[in-house]
Amino acid sequence: MRRQLDELIRVAGSRWAVEECFQTAKQECGLDDYQVRRYPGWHRHMTLAMAAHACLTVLRARQLDTDKAETDPPSSSTSASPKSDA
């Protein structure tokens, strides 16, 4: 019973992440800008908008990683120094 309740809570909590994803896609990629006339056109529009949103998300994550790497001080690691085979 407890495991089922934990699973229900996890699924209910993940709904918000999905909702935020759709909201962002609506704002940035025009997910809600298509006036449905026929299914094939709607399907193409949704697929293209979601693909664009996925690309933007990946590019944003890479940019954030790059910015973080540029602002973080270098770590003093001994594994980065060359080893001698003597």
TrEMBL record:
InterPro entries: IS701-like, RNaseH-like_sf. Signal peptide: none annotated. Residues 64-86 are annotated as: Disordered. Residues 72-86 have a biased composition (Low complexity). This is SRSO17 transposase.
